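Case study 2.
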Amino acid sequence: MSTIDLSSHKGLIWHEDFIVHLASILRPRVYVELGIYRCALFNRVIPFADHLIGVDLNPEAGQFMAKSSKTQFINSTTLEFAQQIKAGSLWIDMLFIDADHSKGAVLQDFYAYLPYVAPHGLILLHDVHPGSEELLNPAWCGTAYLAAEELSRYRDEFEIMTIPASPGLAICRKRQLQLSWQEPRQPDRKYKIVCICQVYNEMIKANLERFFRYTKPLVDAIVVYDDGSTDGSYEFMLSQTPYVIRGIQNDFANEISHKQVLLQEALKLEPDFILWLDADEVLTASAVDHLQGICALCIDRQIDGVVFHEVNLWRSHSWRRLDSLYDVGWFVRLWRVTPGMSYNKPQPGLHQRPYPPSIKRLHWVDTIKVLHYGFSSKQRLAHKYLVYESHGQRGYDMLDRLISEEQLVLEKVPQEYFPEGLWEDDEKPEPLNWSQSLAYVEEFREEVFRPHFSIICLIYKSVAWLKFVYEQVLKYTEMTRKEFFFVANDATDEVIEYLREHDIPHYEFNNSAEQRAEWYVNNVYRAYNYAAAKAKGDFLIFINSDMAFSPGWFDNLWRAYNGSNCVCSRLVESGKLPSGQYGIEKDLGRNYSSYRENEFQQYAAAIAQSKVENGGLFMPLLIRKKHFEMAGGYPEGQVVVGSNIYDPIIAKWGEACISGDTVLMQKLHAHGIIHQTVFDSVVYHFQWGEKDD
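Prediction:
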């Protein structure tokens, strides 16, 4: 195409040659013209655009449009069409506004279509430099020039200039960055993004609700690996996403193995991209506008991974830390899905590369950042410090840097970084000396290392049974993050003395003289309720003193917990008394001295089944402490048939009654908690062990 000679255009249509020339250079994917009249310009642009849309209120205007698979006539007002594309995914590369020439109409069209113009797309405004007073006539240029004048005052989202040749043409470029190749374009389609996240007891640190609230709108699905949480994180996640993978035992050092499991599950959803975030992180507010564009950039340039900068909030919700390597964190957060994406033979250990080795071509962006709340409070800092310390981390770089503030440099985080509702304008934290930092860490030591499970056993008169069940539990139960204690329930002096002399964890519970005169089972239920109140764990495991255990009895109970159940082991019972639902009567010894342990272990392995059924017997019972308390615990005895389970009449010996265990299960059921039996958690029950001793 030859150079445009403006001097040869004595009329008012030089802009047509100019726009056609622009189109020939830029080759817009989508060209939209508002007000096509007789399509003189529109038809000339057809060779240079992939898709062209002409909008005009006059139905006859469409008759002048050249017929092509690339062209589309929209007979409507400009605002009606703007509403139509609002629900779609149209991105305009070149927009020519030439409909109503009044200031108000031009501004209305400009702002109605601006959101759908691609980054670095052009908006062209006609009639914005009339050469004489007579051209201000509404039939010609009108007051469109006033719209251009007003738009020239705003420079954040776009830049604008006017060619001062009558009748005038303004060229507006929508942009955030100066260089178009540094700014992601808006995609032609919506890319499917799946977020993966590893979680371990994040409810206690108040991270999960924020994570889900601000991540769910950005992605198509969230897949989480729960690393054995006990604080309610698992239950909360089940309410937020159907894709929850549950680990049975916390295994912090196997982070990469867990990521491999996460990746495999996420790939089943057939995403285009994987977004990796931790539960104490959210993306900045800009992610809403830029995340899909960054995906398009990756597709266009065959980029494997996108690197985001991490903003580390420090003991506050609006101050970031800059010193001691706290501002140098750039992590590969967005992964383009490619065939065979996987981790190669994940190995245990901390500080490994967190993204798959197939990700080779990286791209750094600054339009989206990661807000990291992991250092935003003393509690969160103490948790990190103590956990890393427990895994052998030492020295300034690997450990002490987490809490040291000797070189503290803070900077206020811009409010616009925060998604709506997250901004808190708090005070700048004052630096702490090393002693002060260690002091607050110690304040949270008990919280970090407290037991998550409390195994509870009542004892009252037999040291022999006490010793037997204590040894059995320790022999067949991995005790990490567990406490095991006895409740000496109206116990004999001999039992109390043995517990004290051997430093065996226990509490002493004594019923009143009047209570001791009641049916003995009343005192049993009262003691269990007392024990539940004393327990430090998130979960209670009630056992009897006349039980023996098989390998995996506890792990299989815990594996069967699903957030809305309480689970009991399957009992093999000696036959002293008739067994109940799912129980098996088989005499393998009727007391600790005649117990045939090897024979029981072989039998337990033979009958174990990987299944869970509703109902069953009542101990050993694993129940979430919160659920136990919600139901009000056990009634203080067996309950008279027909009485209100929430205000029960306690039965006396000989009265028709319902067991307190059954009443507890009825109350739990009313709250949606189902009583179930786990068929691969096999426990031997001697029946009336202490009572017969």
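The domain at 193-442 is CATH 3.90.550 (Spore Coat Polysaccharide Biosynthesis Protein SpsA; Chain A).
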